[in-house]
């Protein structure tokens, strides 16, 4: 399946700002979607669409910070670049703590914005790659039988087959069979690879 091109979403209640930004970004090759509110963004955004959001802090109804918090709560990890005409320290701190890529005060330098967009899109690509890898590992784990999971847990603890057999009350040959099957299902050849996959998944959960 072809990879979708990144989209820059501009969410700002000021028509002049969002239209000007949209034209400027389109002129340098970006695909742009303009939204006048957080509510409109949520209606048009598709989770499989890579990109980033240029988000105004102060908007009627839902603020930019409200939208950022909602996206985080729903595990929608599209990177956010905040723009605002006025900012106080608590607002900036909250935005950064919630994962904002940048916080730009209007009027800002266009080149600075472009650098932030590039950083945000690269971050989005990394996150999406990691999510695909995590989903793949989870599917492989889900294919294991309960006994294969038991053996897996003990393999990644570094235990030998004879120790695993004694702890599970089965023969060494039975452990060898389960071990070979789970390694094949997990698509790894060595216990160290298996441990790395499982530990990576647990850290990201």
TrEMBL record:
The keyword Membrane does not apply. SUPFAM superfamilies: C-terminal effector domain of the bipartite response regulators, CheY-like. GO terms for molecular function: DNA binding. Residues 137-202 form the HTH luxR-type domain. GO terms for biological process: phosphorelay signal transduction system; regulation of DNA-templated transcription. SMART domains: HTH_LUXR, REC. Residues 7-121 form the Response regulatory domain. It holds the Pfam family GerE. The keyword Phosphoprotein applies. Keywords: DNA-binding, Phosphoprotein, Transcription, Transcription regulation, Two-component regulatory system. It comes from the Bacteria. The modification 4-aspartylphosphate is found at residue 56. This is Two component transcriptional regulator, LuxR family. The lineage of its organism: Bacteria, Pseudomonadati, Pseudomonadota, Gammaproteobacteria, Chromatiales.
């Amino acid at each position: 399946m072809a990879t979708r091109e990144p989209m820059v979403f501009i969410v700002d209640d000021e028509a002049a700002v969002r239209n000007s930004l949209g034209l400027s970004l389109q002129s340098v090759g970006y695909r742009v979607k303009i939204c006048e509110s957080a509510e409109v963004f949520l209606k048009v955004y598709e989770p499989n669409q890579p990109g980033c959001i240029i988000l105004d802090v102060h908007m009627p109804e839902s603020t930019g910070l409200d939208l950022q918090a909602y996206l985080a709560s729903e595990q929608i990890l599209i990177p956010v670049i905040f723009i605002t005409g006025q900012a106080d320290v608590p607002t900036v701190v909250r935005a950064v703590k919630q994962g904002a890529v940048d916080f730009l005060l209007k009027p800002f330098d266009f080149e600075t914005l472009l650098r932030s967009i590039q950083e945000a899109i690269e971050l989005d690509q990394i996150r999406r790659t990691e999510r695909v890898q995590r989903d793949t590992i989870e599917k492989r784990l889900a294919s294991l039988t309960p006994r294969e999971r038991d053996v897996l847990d003990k393999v990644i603890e570094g235990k030998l087959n004879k120790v695993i057999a004694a702890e599970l009350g089965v023969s060494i040959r039975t452990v060898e069979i389960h071990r070979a099957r789970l390694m094949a299902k997990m698509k790894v050849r060595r216990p160290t690879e298996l441990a790395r996959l499982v530990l990576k998944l647990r850290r990201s959960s």
